[in-house]
Design brief:
About 50% of the residues lie in helices and about 15% in strands. It is α/β, with parallel strands linked by helices. The longest helix has 23 residues.
C-alpha cells in the first residue's frame, strides 16, 4: 500500500470504476462512493462492479460505500465522476467533509445553465481556494477500453503544479498516460462540447453519409467548439490536443461512446426517450446541447451544427436535415481562429 495519500472517487459508474481501479492498482487506498448499499456490498464482496464492468477484477485496495462521510474521511485527492445532474448536490454535501489541503478534481463532462457554470466553477463555489485546489480530468477515455487495459491517455488541468504532479503519480500506468495543462477552461469545455458532436456523428453514421462526410463534420465541429471556447476565454490551442481533437475523434467514431449510440438511435427513428432508454446510461450530450444552444444565442456565436441537432431533438426535424444544413450553410471559411 502506498502511504500518505488516500484517494476518494465519487461515482461508481463506468468511468469512476476504472479510475478507482487504476489508482488502487498503483497501490493507493481508494474509497469508491456509490449510490446504494447493495451496490457497495456487491463490489466489496465480489471484487467487481457487475453493473458496469462485470469482466473487470477490481483491486483489493478499493473499498466501496454509499456513505459520503466514510468515503471522504482522510481523503487528500478527490475525483468526482458523477453525472452533471447531481454534481452540484454532491459538492454541497461534501463541502464540510473536505480535508484541508486536499485536491478536488472534476471528471464530469458537463455544463450547467442559469447561470452558465462548469463543473470546476461549481467546485470553486464550494471550497476555499486558499486551502484547496481544483483540477479537471478529461480526454478520450472510453471506459470499456480502459477496463480492457487498452492504451489510453488523459489530460489533467489545474493552476496548481502540486495537483498536476499528484494526479500524474496516482493515475499513470503502463497503459494509461497522463498529460498536464494549465488551461482548465479549455480542457473542461472540450470535454463537455464534444459530446454534442458525438451525437451528431452517430446520426450521420445512421444515415450512411460516408467517411468524407465524417471528416467534414469533425472539422466543422472543431471550428464550432473552438469558436465557443475563445468567446469564453479559453486557449484555442488546447482544442488541438488530447482533450480536444483526441476526445472528439474517439467519441465521434466509436460505438462505445454513449453519445454516439444516442445519435445513432435518433438517426434510426427513435424518440429521444427511446434513444436514452436504449443506451441505458447517462449521455451528457443532450444536457450540454440545451446549455450551449442557450449560451451561444446569448453570446451571438454561430454554431450551425448545434442548431441542427437542437431542431432534430426538440422540433421533430428529420435526421437528414443535419446534412442538408451542413451543405447549405453559407459559411465557407475553414480555420477561423489564430493564436
Amino acid at each position: 500500500m502506498t502511504a500518505s495519500i488516500k484517494v476518494a472517487v465519487l461515482g461508481g459508474g463506468s468511468f469512476g470504476t476504472v479510475l478507482a481501479n487504476i489508482a488502487a492498482s498503483n497501490g493507493y487506498e481508494v474509497s469508491l462512493w456509490v449510490r446504494d448499499s447493495e451496490q457497495a456490498l456487491r463490489i466489496n464482496s465480489e471484487g467487481a462492479n457487475s453493473t458496469y464492468h462485470p469482466e473487470l477484477q477490481l483491486s483489493s485496495n478499493i473499498s466501496a460505500s454509499e456513505k459520503l462521510d466514510d468515503v471522504m474521511d482522510g481523503s487528500s485527492l478527490v475525483f468526482i465522476a458523477t453525472p452533471s445532474l447531481i454534481f452540484e448536490t454532491i459538492m454541497e454535501r461534501i463541502n464540510p467533509m473536505i480535508e484541508e489541503g486536499s485536491y478536488i478534481v472534476s471528471c464530469t463532462k458537463g455544463i450547467k445553465l442559469n447561470p452558465f457554470r462548469s463543473m470546476s466553477d461549481i467546485i470553486s463555489m464550494n471550497i476555499d481556494a486558499n486551502i484547496n485546489q481544483v483540477g479537471v480530468l478529461s480526454g478520450p477515455n472510453l471506459a470499456k477500453e480502459i477496463a480492457d487495459k487498452k492504451i489510453a491517455g488523459t489530460v489533467i488541468a489545474s493552476s496548481s503544479d502540486a495537483l498536476l504532479s499528484q494526479v500524474k503519480k496516482v493515475l499513470s500506468s503502463d497503459t494509461f498516460k497522463v498529460y498536464s495543462s494549465n488551461d482548465i477552461q479549455g480542457v473542461e469545455l472540450a470535454g463537455a462540447l464534444k459530446n454534442i458532436y458525438a451525437i451528431i456523428c452517430g446520426i450521420a453514421d445512421s444515415l450512411d453519409v460516408g467517411e468524407n462526410a465524417v471528416g467534414l463534420i469533425l472539422t466543422r465541429s472543431m471550428a464550432e467548439m473552438s469558436r465557443f471556447a475563445v468567446a469564453k476565454g479559453a486557449n484555442p490551442i488546447t482544442f488541438l490536443g488530447l482533450a480536444g481533437m483526441g476526445d472528439l475523434v474517439a467519441t465521434c467514431t466509436s460505438g462505445l461512446s454513449r453519445n454516439y449510440q444516442l445519435g445513432s438511435n435518433l438517426g434510426n427513428g427513435m424518440t429521444l426517450q427511446e434513444a436514452k432508454d436504449q443506451v441505458g446510461q447517462v449521455a451528457e450530450g443532450i444536457r450540454t446541447l440545451d446549455v450551449i444552444k442557450e449560451e451561444s444565442k446569448e453570446l451571438g456565436i454561430s454554431m450551425p451544427l448545434v442548431d441542427s441537432l437542437y431542431n432534430i431533438v426538440y422540433k421533430n426535424y428529420l435526421p437528414k436535415t443535419l446534412i442538408d444544413d451542413l451543405i447549405n450553410n453559407s459559411h465557407e471559411v475553414d480555420v477561423e481562429f489564430t493564436y
